[in-house]
Write a structure and sequence with these properties.
Oligomer: single chain
Order of helices and strands: EEHH
Low-confidence stretches: none
Number of strands: 2
Strand order of the largest sheet: 1-2
Mean pLDDT: 84
Largest sheet: 2 strands, antiparallel
Distance between the termini: 55 Å
Shape: elongated
């Protein structure tokens, strides 16, 4: 199987880079949206930032969570 990124220009699917395929042959094409794909030239967030935004929660977390993460994760005594 060969996979490559491409864009649809409204009429044809255009690969983003050259693809080494035999000419004048038929292919079965499976289409899925790329993660973090930009829309019409908009700047798309990187995959990690997009995931964080989609999975963010509004919880009441301790204000010292970043400094005392071992305490909250593993139950170790608080530092400092």
């Amino acid at each position: 199987m060969i996979a490559f990124n491409a864009r649809f220009d409204g009429e044809v699917i255009v690969p983003e880079r050259a693809v080494d395929l035999p000419r004048d042959r038929s292919f079965v094409v499976h289409v899925e949206t790329s993660v973090g794909a930009d829309r019409a030239g908009e700047d798309a967030p990187s995959h990690a930032l997009q995931w964080l935004a989609e999975n963010a929660v509004d919880d009441e977390l301790p204000s010292d969570l970043s400094a005392q993460h071992d305490h909250y994760l593993y139950g170790t005594p608080k530092q400092g």
